[in-house]
Predict the 3D structure of the following.
Amino acid sequence: MHGSGAVPKVVAKNPLVEIDGDEMTRVIWAMVKEHLIEPFVEIQLERYDLFLPERDRTDDQVTVQAAEAVRRHGVGVKCATITPDAARVKEYNLKKAWPSPNGTLRAILDGTVFRKPIVVKNVPPMVRAWKKPITIGRHAYGDVYRDVEMAIPGPGRVELVYHPSDGGPAHSVRVHDFKGAGVAMAMHNLEASIRSFARSCMGYALDERTDVWFGAKDTISKTYHAAFKAIFQSEYEARKADFEKAGITYSYLLIDDAVARAVRHPGGFLWACMNYDGDVLSDMLASGFGSLGLMTSVLVSPDGKFEYEAAHGTVQRHYYEHQKGRPTSTNSTATIFAWSGALGKRGELDGTPELTEFARKLEESVIETIESGAVTKDLAAIAEPKVEDYVSTEGFIKAIAERLRAKVGAGAAAR
Ligand code: NAP
Ligand code: MG
């Protein structure tokens, strides 16, 4: 089927941290490596297997080691992983419900998660105005994800109290005088974390040359949200000259105004979101742009470490079909873009433009394959024109490999 044998491999200077995972994405992972990476690139892969049984065997130490490896080498690529719940503990006979690997990675790398849809011509966004991708920058620490909550059984006073460590006087505010039953919660964030979030967003926008929006609700939350707004403003001012040079802008918007504007906007900007807003809006954007299989995700730490992955999970239902020996049609686009993102960044950091060029050709091959009408089931129904005969999981990857081989071969012949 494919052309005349081996093409010369691109050689990477430094290792890439490879973090393998679970279920259908693990199946895809092996195929992507076999057909799209190994034949073309010579790179040392420092591999950590976060396959659930391995996390259980190592008491989750493998997750910590993977995060430390990304710290050390600067770039990692991660497969989707199961975050175990009670059903998974039973299914895999686990010692316990280990925490979310992504939570552990974020805690160690301390960064911001950027999620960007991949735009292809034959999968039009649901929102007519959207022409270019909208990237979400989600703060990955605190707020409701680190809150404490209390059920209030009946009448009584709830207060929030701060005891300074230096022994100064305590400071308290009344939350509410309950006349009956209710609920209460307290959440927090950290100046250092908010600042690194803002800094990562400014850095990402300058790298990608896109405008930045930050949305919050400081009119209502005059201390908490206002702190985010003030820190963003100060980090923007620190980079203002760079923004002007790059021809990009920073805007603060009330979050409801940001939402209303976003659906009327042609796109092509970075939307910095507080943790909860980012959680909700990235799912809205992913389906608005077409499919979960077309959403990429990268965790960027404030000191410039990068961990690339697909935004979706392990596609469990497809995996059970695969295990029964039935054909599957799972979209591997976001997983492939995790690899191309990581290889491209490796090339950029190491000064090996031929590696970055390979990553670009890989992405081009994926997009051209989809635009040629060779699509998986998730896209077949929403593609324009509609596709009757969708391809299998493996068929899709092999079609990409064929295009890539032609592209890389043509490049090599021209040299
Ligand atoms: P999911 O794996 O993202 O899948 C949800 C549904 O979306 C699938 O059943 C499938 O729909 C569709 N889908 C997602 N990715 C697709 C792709 N590449 N190609 C085609 N269709 C795709 O989410 P989940 O089912 O909620 O979670 C499964 C497991 O993944 C859980 O154990 C969860 O903990 C884990 N998870 C991991 C990550 C991560 O590692 N980053 C993120 C989220 C979830 P149809 O079944 O209708 O075809
Ligand atoms: Mg979500």
About this structure: The chain is about 45% helix and 20% strand.
